[in-house]
Amino acid sequence: MRFAGTIVLASLLVVAGMAARPLIATEIPPAERRSGYTFMGPDTKAMQDDDTANPGMLGVIDGEALWKRKTGTTGKACADCHDNARVSMKGVAARYPAYDKELGRPVNLEQRINLCRARHQDATPLPYERHDLLALTTFVAEQSRGMPIAPDVTPELEPFVAKGRDFFMHRQGQLNLGCTNCHDDNWDKHLAGSAVTQAIPNGYPIYRLEWQSLGSLQRRLRNCINGMRAQNFEFGAQELVELELYLMVRAQGMTVETPAVRP
Amino acid sequence: MTAALINVPKKAKRGDIIEIKTLMSHIMETGYRHTTSGQIVPRDIITSFACRYNGEEIFRADLFPATAANPFISFFTIATESGKFDFEWIGDNGFSETGSASITVE
């Protein structure tokens, strides 16, 4: 009897342990979500807050020049169709990636810029992660600074959000990790001295001190996928766009900080 | 296309200590890195920065490969008279950029 009692007690302990720390991933309740900004030290925060100290603002300046520059065989500038970006681009980055009817799939801001170049300017696409595309994207996204992230999840976008969520939740790679294992379950802890954070993409393109440059959300995602030692995707891959889309849905209502500074 | 950000207070009282902040766009390639094929990426850095206040040099700095990209340089001076601050960045491969900002001293 005593033996049986021990087993019961042990099982109870196991159950109690599970209740305290669920094994299945839990999404962060909306009220507990925090911008990556809140995990940073005072120096990095000060750098982001001061527009004359934030190196991301250099990208905004360059992006504005590119916005007005005529390009492609049609000789049109972004400004020739969209006029003043401060008006026309306000809130755009807050709802991207968005659905493109012609392609029948979501596209992110960088892809939208390149689609515009192809369809309306007859210009060659700007390569991913090069300064020009990053600068233009940063300039467009900066017009949404201070606005809440508000993805427009239409019925045709829903399956793509679901795919992105699936990617986020599933374990993969040699380390057998899913995004959720760090960013939902362990965001209050540290990994090699760095805060894990909640994967709230509210400041992209960011100026990352580690990169010494601006970089896109896809660059950051590829970093994480490499870290999990999983098979990576090329820039612009559909899988990454779907993940971006899910992350934006997950960050709904958080304030856009572009150009954010991150360590 | 080189972007720079210069922050000088527009107004100051005579004798005030003012902070001047500058941010210059530059990759600051150290010259110590290699490409995947083993070739050295040539050094490309800003080597010197100077600031003149109404023609008189008030600040100068030499920069070296350990400086991060987009160097941010801030320093203090005393507002003595209204006028102009001239900034100059000089670097490898003929890099040369200037900027200026005005101040009114009351």
Please tell me about this protein's structure.
- The complex is a heterodimer of chains A (263) and B (106).
- Chain A is mainly alpha-helical.
- Helix content of chain A is 44%, strand content 7%.
- Chain A has a single domain (29-263), classed as Cytochrome c-like domain (Cytochrome Bc1 Complex, Chain D, domain 2, Orthogonal Bundle).
- In chain A, helix 3 (56-68) packs across helix 7.
- The N and C termini of chain A lie far apart (59 Å).
- The relative contact order of chain A is 0.17.
- Helix content of chain B is 0%, strand content 52%.
- Chain B contains no helices and eight strands.
- In chain B, the strands form two sheets. In chain B, strands 2-8-7-4-5 form a five-stranded mixed beta sheet, with no helix packed on it. A three-stranded antiparallel beta sheet of chain B has the order 1-3-6, with no helix packed on it.
- Classes of the chains: A mainly alpha (263), B mainly beta (106).
- The A-B interface holds A 50-53, 55, 57-59, 61-62, 65, 209, 212-213 and B 1, 3-7, 21, 23, 25, 27-28, 68-70, 72, 74.
Summary keywords:
A: 263 residues, mainly alpha, Cytochrome Bc1 Complex, Chain D, domain 2, 3-stranded mixed beta sheet, globular, B: 106 residues, mainly beta, Immunoglobulin-like, 5-stranded mixed beta sheet, 3-stranded antiparallel beta sheet, 52% strand
